[in-house]
Every structure is written in structure tokens, then in C-alpha cells.
Design goal:
It is built from 12 helices and 13 strands. By secondary structure, it is an alpha/beta fold. The strands form 4 sheets. The protein has a 7-stranded parallel beta sheet, sandwiched between helices. Helix 5 links the parallel strand 5 and strand 6. The structure holds nicotinamide-adenine-dinucleotide (NAD) and thymidine-5'-diphosphate.
Length: 351
């Protein structure tokens, strides 16, 4: 099996690459990544000497180059994670999200289609696995959960671009019999998460005594899943999921943003030897995000009953371990928060 994993230098991708390289030594794993601000090869330093792992630096939006790589490498399967992934950035620059998330996905589909002939989804042993988000389903009120049947209703340029890419993947299954699988997952947390997203941003800011920006009243709700659980789900779906099917992945773990940040403050107070309540004093309410989705919650019963996957139950421990990882990896934090990102952070925070 020769497998291209796109976006493998990013947050979730690096966890997926690590599982596949270590668990399947007989597979050849190619990590294809452009190394944007969010991609960092330091995330995979421990794999550099593994004989079944290789890295290719490439932009999925460069169609000609992607076709050339597929022609040369002839991968049997693709797990596609490369994307622009931050909602706030998508509000500032929607076109970048169209370019990578929509055009990049279509380029990969076409490149795979050009080498996987005949394309009969039942026979070839090929798989194009598209990794997506629950944000395509839009926003929930106080009740209910997203199922695989929930109609798409994206609100941000990020979720609109992911929704478009999901539609293309399904359209290629229907039109060309492309052997595809999809999953839509809730908010992830864990090590190697770029510190512009809520959890790593707060850990970083608590450590540096900086304000913790809470959008609006902090009452928006997210369903948090440990990244290792997501990577295990991707492994299960890639190997045992049904071709043409979609699987929702979620933590069954809903938190209001403000409650989550307060929990994180308690954990950090303990770890840093602060007095109880000290970190929470950094909480600062700021202008709400435009089009801010109120609530996400995932029904992942199809994945749980069909493929026997379960999320980790001890959220507090996983969150505390995540905080500890950031405290132990100061060099990583310093590297990713320097340069280009710092400029963005200053702009973002001074609004
Ligand atoms: P990330 O931003 O941490 O990493 C994205 C990776 O893609 C980076 O390594 C980056 O260099 C690479 N990339 C970006 N543009 C590229 C391009 N044009 N060509 C090649 N590589 C490119 O993202 P993440 O949080 O790890 O998310 C990975 C995937 O999972 C995305 O598709 C995202 O939509 C999806 N997802 C994320 C979450 C979450 O909570 N983070 C939840 C559900 C689904
Ligand atoms: P984020 O981590 O950006 O993920 P997403 O927007 O994909 O859900 O944000 C998680 C929640 O936290 C979301 O409701 C927005 C909110 N948030 C803040 O309140 N302050 C922040 O600085 C950030 C980055 C997010």
C-alpha cells in the first residue's frame, strides 16, 4: 500500500501520519504538505528515520505539479487533510480558502482519477478519504445533534469551502464511481495544535500572562474531541468504513467556551503553582466573531456501533496532558509563534 496523506505536517495530520507510519510498517506513507504557517516538520521529527515515511513539499492548488506527483508516485490511496483551517482567517481572506480547500481538493480528486483506472469503487482497492468538519452542518440551538443526514448549512467562509469540497468528493463517487470515504469531525484539541485556536491560544497566553480573548459572552458551545481519538477514528474508517459513506466523529463532550477556558485556567494554576483563580483574571471579553455559530454537537453513533470506535472518557486528564505538552515544548511554541504568525496575532488581538 502506497498512501499519500495530505496536510501531514499540520495538527491533526501529524497525529494521523504517526499512527500510520508506526502501526503499518509495510505501508509506504508519503506526507504531502505545502508547509504553510500551520505546517511544521518539527511535528514529525521522530519519524524522519523511519524507512516507510517520506515527505513531499507541494501545494495542492498547483494542479500541474499534483498530477506530476501522482503520475510518478502512483499512490494506491489518499487521506486528504490539507486545508486552510481557521475560521477567523477565512473571514479575512476567503479566497485562500477556496483555493486550497475547494480547488486543491478537486485537483487531488482529478489526479487520483487519472491514475486509478478503471475507477470501479467496488474493485480497485483504492480509497480517497476526505477529512472534513462538523461546521458544514451549520449551527444548532439548545437541543439536538448533527447526524450524517443533517442538511448542510455552512456560515463561515471556512465551513462553506469545506462544504463545497465535501460535495465534490460525493459528486465524484456518484459521477465517476470514485472510491471515496468521508468523515465530519467536531473540534479537536491536543499537542501540536497551532496557538491561534482557542485551547492552545489560552494555554500560551496564560503562560505568558496575556489576556484570554473570549468572543461575545463566551456562551457558544463546542463538542471537544482529543486529537488522538480523531486519528484512531480515521484509521478505523480508512480500513473498515464503507466506500461512499460518511461518518460523523465527535467527543460527546459539549462545553461553553467560557466554562472550558475556566477549566483550563484551573489546570494551569495547578501546573504553574499559581494561587487558585489567578489565571482566570486574564479572561477578557472581546467583540464577537462575525457569523459565530452558536452550538456544535455530533451524533457519532454510526461510527460507534458500526466500527466499534469510542472517544476517550477522561476529558480533564487529556486537557491537562495537552497543557503539559505545551509547557514541555517551549521551543516548538516559540518557533511557530514567531514571524508571520506574530503579525497576524497582533492584528487579531488589537481589533
Ligand atoms: P492545520 O491548519 O493544523 O494543518 C493544515 C495542514 O495543511 C498544514 O500542515 C498546512 O501546511 C497544510 N496545507 C495548507 N494548505 C495547503 C496546500 N495548499 N497544499 C498542501 N498543504 C497545505 O489543520 P488541522 O486542524 O490539522 O485540520 C486538518 C484537517 O482536518 C482539515 O481538513 C480540517 O478542515 C479538518 N478538521 C479539523 C478540525 C479541528 O478541530 N482542527 C476538526 C474537524 C476537521
Ligand atoms: P476555534 O478554536 O477557532 O475553533 P472553531 O471556530 O473552528 O470552532 O474556536 C473555538 C470557539 O472558541 C469558537 O466558539 C470561537 C471561540 N474563540 C474565542 O472565544 N476566542 C478566541 O480567541 C478564539 C480563537 C476562539
Amino acid at each position: 500500500m502506497k498512501l499519500i496523506i495530505t496536510g501531514g505536517a499540520g495538527f491533526i495530520g501529524s497525529h494521523v501520519v504517526r499512527i500510520f507510519v508506526n502501526k503499518y510498517p509495510h505501508y509506504t506513507i508519503i506526507n504531502l504538505d505545502k508547509l504553510t504557517y500551520a505546517g511544521n516538520l518539527q511535528n514529525l521529527q521522530d519519524l524522519e528515520q523511519q524507512p516507510n515515511y517520506r515527505f513531499i513539499k507541494a501545494d495542492i492548488a498547483n494542479r500541474e505539479n499534483i498530477f506530476k506527483i501522482f503520475e510518478e508516485e502512483k499512490p494506491d490511496s489518499v487521506i486528504h487533510l490539507a486545508a486552510e483551517s481557521h475560521v477567523d482567517r477565512s473571514i479575512r481572506n476567503p479566497l485562500e480558502f477556496v483555493t486550497t480547500n475547494v480547488i486543491g481538493t478537486v485537483n487531488l480528486l482529478d489526479a487520483a482519477r487519472s491514475i486509478w483506472q478503471p475507477l470501479d469503487s467496488a474493485q480497485g482497492g483504492n480509497c480517497f478519504y476526505h477529512v472534513s468538519t462538523d461546521e458544514v452542518y451549520g449551527s444548532l440551538g439548545d437541543e439536538g445533534k448533527f447526524t450524517e443526514q443533517t442538511a448542510y448549512d455552512p456560515h463561515s467562509p471556512y465551513s462553506a469551502s469545506k462544504a463545497a469540497s465535501d460535495h465534490f468528493v460525493r459528486a465524484y463517487y456518484d459521477t465517476f464511481k470514485m472510491p471515496v470515504k468521508l468523515s465530519n469531525c467536531s473540534n479537536n484539541f491536543g499537542s501540536h495544535h497551532f496557538p491561534e485556536k482557542l485551547i492552545p491560544l489560552c494555554i500560551h497566553n496564560i503562560k505568558n500572562g496575556k489576556p484570554l480573548p473570549i468572543y461575545g459572552k463566551g456562551e457558544n458551545i463546542r463538542d471537544w474531541l482529543w486529537v488522538e481519538d480523531h486519528a484512531r477514528a480515521i484509521d478505523a474508517i480508512f480500513h473498515n468504513g464503507k466506500v461512499g459513506d460518511t461518518y460523523n466523529i465527535g467527543g460527546n463532550n459539549e462545553w461553553k467556551n467560557i466554562d472550558l477556558v475556566k477549566l483550563l485556567c484551573d489546570i494551569m494554576d495547578e501546573k504553574l503553582g499559581h494561587a487558585a483563580g489567578e489565571s482566570a483574571q486574564l479572561i477578557t471579553y472581546v467583540t464577537d466573531r462575525a457569523g459565530h455559530d452558536f452550538r456544535y454537537a455530533i451524533d457519532s453513533s454510526k461510527l460507534q456501533t458500526g466500527l466499534g470506535w469510542q472517544p476517550t472518557s477522561d476529558f480533564r486528564k487529556a486537557l491537562a496532558d495537552t497543557a503539559q505538552w505545551y509547557l514541555d515544548n517551549e521551543e516548538w511554541l516559540n518557533n511557530v509563534t514567531s514571524g508571520e504568525y506574530l503579525k497576524y496575532y497582533e492584528e487579531q488581538y488589537s481589533r
